[in-house]
Amino acid sequence: MKKISAKPVGMFELFYDLVFVYAISRITAMIHHPINGSIPLITFLQFLLVVIVVMQIWLYQVIYFNRYSKNSFWDLSGLVLNMFVAVYLANNINTEWRITFHYFNIAMAVMIVTLFCQYLFAQVDKNNDKKVFLIILGLEFFLIVVGLLVGYPAGIYFCIAGYIIGFILPLFLKEMFKAERVNFPHLVERVSLIVIIAFGEAIVNLATYFNNKTPLVYVALLFLSLVLMFASYVILSDKLINHHQISKGFVLMYSHIAIVVSILLMTVSLLYLQIKNVNRSFLFLLIIGSIALYYFSLAINQVYNKNKCKFDIRDFLSLLLIFALGVSYLWFVIRSELGIAICLLIWNLAFFLIFLMKSKNSLN
Fold first, then answer.
1. Would the pTM of this model clear 0.90, i.e. be above it?
2. Please, are residues 139 and 113 in contact by the beta-carbon 8 Å criterion?
3. I want to staple 262 with a disulfide (CB 3.0 to 4.6 A). Which of 148, 198, 246, 293 is the partner?
4. SS3 assignment, position 322
5. How many Cα atoms within 13 Å fall on the side-chain side of residue 166?
């Protein structure tokens, strides 16, 4: 494939990411506390929707800077304005939609119209695809405004429709996007940073175990499990993926939303280990769902791997075997906190070794 030069990530882009440290912590708090031993379905769906909403705002801003931004005064002004509004948005993330309906959706409307203006006034040549973004953002903004005018509770369905359209419509219009517009190494670096933020949230929450009542070995096992999960991602991002390629990056972007969801679910799973009244069957499903989503999302990114590092059928079968053995082991130890911690360590170590062995090919 044709090699392309990496567009440097600007300091203001990194500054922008700091807002999402707070936003992700607020999202995780939505499912921190189990109700009757589990997460109610409506709460879980609200959690998924908020992740999609927050991540799509982050991605649309990333895509703008990746494709069109010249780091001009107006570009940075729009970024800073969205940072300010994003803090307000994050402060209204909770499960009490009746209370935060107007505040949350007004903040979303402001950020979307800011993004719309950025794309609208981007100085690019005629051979561009910004019209697609304008159509998607314009439709999303329209539905949110309609929802706000209708009011709660009926208006919430218009807002949700807008968010879902903003999230999935690019998939239906993907043929209209131009791959040559994407600076792929910049995009890889940007999505990697949001994964680091998600893992940072996991470590912060794990800090509750660092006390004189929890055995140190137990804390060490959980900590090393997160480290191994992150190490598998680092190998994929740094060693396996060919950064210098022409690609629209759809699999990369959407899979990273799933990766963030899986890390947040794993974070909550670790928190639930210290809650005695958690339904163990629910905890079992939560852990295996987190692991499955995380490593599946890593594996599908092999479409971007260097030719020598592509996954073959044997690699996928190895991953499936590790997953099946881990599920079986977890089922037998699900009522033991120490047993779960040991299982997670061995499980993530096995996945890590698969990615590590695959990375050896990049050295040949």
1. yes
2. no
3. 293
4. helix
5. 32
